[in-house]
Structures are given as C-alpha cells and as structure tokens.
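Q: I'm building a small set of examples for a reading group on sequence design. Run inverse folding on the following structure and report the sequence directly after it, with nothing in between.
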C-alpha cells in the first residue's frame, strides 16, 4: 500500500481509536505509577468521541477528517493531554492544501507538523519524559521513508516509538503531574509516550489487515 485515500484513512483512525480504547487498563496502570492514573480514561474518552463524530460522516478530504478527529478529542478530553493529543491531528493538517489522499512522504510530513504543534503548545523537548519522546523518534524514522510502502513506514515508526518509550524510563519527569516526582519517576515509562506507540502499532496492524484482504 503506497497511497491512502480519505475513506481508508477514516477506517484507519477508527481502528486505532478502538485499540486505544481497549488499552485503557494498560494506560491507566502506566499512568498510576508516576502520574494520577487518568491517562487511560482520558484517551478512551477522547477516542470514543472521535468514533462517535466520524461514524456517521463521509469525508472527501484528509484535512477535514483530521480536523474533526482533533476537535472531537479537544472537546471531550480536557486537561493537558486533551490539548496535546488533539494537536497531533489539528497540527498535521494546519495550512495543508486540500488532499484527497496521501503517500508515505506526505503522511510523514503531516506527523512532523503535528509534532511541531505539540512542542509549540506544550513546550516539551525530547528527554522531558512526555509523548514527544515517542513521537519525535517516530517522525525521524519516517523521514527516511520516501518511496516505501505504508507497511514499512508504520513498522519503522512503531519500532522507533517503542524504543522511545523504553528511553522514557531513564528520564526524570518535567511535565504533567509526574513532574512532582522528578527523579523518583526514573525507572517508569511515560504514559503519553506509551499511547503514541500504541497508535503507530495500530496503524501498522491496520495496514497488515488491509493487505491481507487485498
Ligand atoms: P494529566 O497529566 O493532565 O493527568 P494525562 O494523564 O491524560 O494528563 O496525560 C499525561 C501525558 O500527557 C504524559 O504522560 C505526557 O506524555 C503527556 N504530556 C503532559 N504534558 C505534556 C506537554 N507539555 N507536552 C507533551 N506531552 C505532555
Ligand atoms: Mg494523568
């Protein structure tokens, strides 16, 4: 698969939303160790809102699809992570020319713009023990993917995000509620970074499933 059209992208986002909702217990557990334990709930609320918003709609372009996804999250999640995770989707298509489909290079560019928006909004840099520690390496891994398939793109992004999650165990926390723990957060992975890894894992799983059905 080298190109994803808008209806397929909607399907992919809905598939990912389901996976995040299913991962609520895991994300709750991860956030309980160093945060306040609400990350799983917040993400499940956000992606349930996304499912409800997208379900009955038909989109003709990626721009509107991503905008509605981000707005559904922003309007339902609240808190720091509502702003942060909606920024991935809203930032991805901000100022982008209207596209009915995207190739791997365009998708990588969208995610990079999402990452830039997250960093602008939240002020976190790599090493601050946030979702940036998974999203930035995933974007870096996708940069070198020109001309490859979506299967390859998402495999590289997932692998990089996974490594990023592992690395968050070594960092003291600077953002979110975990920041009160500072050094004591060392040894535990970041919840938001874990969500990013799950998102790319779901994208990868979706591509494999689509290919099997071809
Ligand atoms: P809260 O911190 O309000 O309880 P959640 O538990 O839902 O929100 O989400 C926490 C996650 O949000 C953290 O694990 C981290 O990855 C991410 N996060 C928090 N603040 C920021 C920020 N300023 N920039 C990037 N990510 C952030
Ligand atoms: Mg929390």
């Amino acid at each position: 698969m080298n190109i994803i059209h808008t209806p397929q992208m909607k399907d992919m986002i809905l598939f990912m939303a389901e996976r995040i909702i299913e991962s609520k217990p895991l994300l709750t557990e991860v956030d309980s160790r160093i945060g306040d334990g609400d990350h799983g709930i917040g993400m499940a609320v956000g992606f349930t809102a996304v499912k409800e918003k997208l379900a009955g709609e038909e989109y003709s372009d990626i721009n509107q699809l991503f905008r509605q996804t981000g707005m559904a999250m922003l309007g339902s999640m609240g808190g720091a992570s509502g702003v942060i995770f909606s920024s991935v989707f809203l930032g991805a298509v901000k100022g982008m020319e209207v596209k009915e489909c995207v190739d791997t290079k365009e998708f990588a560019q969208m995610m990079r713009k999402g990452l830039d928006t997250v960093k602008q909004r939240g002020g976190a840099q790599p090493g601050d023990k946030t979702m940036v520690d998974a999203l930035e390496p995933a974007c870096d891994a996708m940069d070198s993917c020109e001309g490859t398939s979506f299967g390859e793109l998402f495999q590289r992004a997932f692998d990089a995000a996974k490594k990023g999650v592992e690395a968050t165990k070594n960092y003291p926390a600077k953002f979110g509620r975990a920041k009160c723990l500072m050094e004591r957060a060392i040894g535990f992975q970041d919840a938001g970074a874990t969500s990013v890894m799950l998102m790319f894992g779901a994208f990868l799983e979706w591509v494999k499933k689509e290919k099997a059905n071809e």
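The pocket of adenosine-5'-diphosphate (ligand 1) is lined by residues 31, 35-36, 38-39, 42, 79-81, 84, 118, 122-124, 130-132, 175-177, 190-193 (CB under 6 Å).
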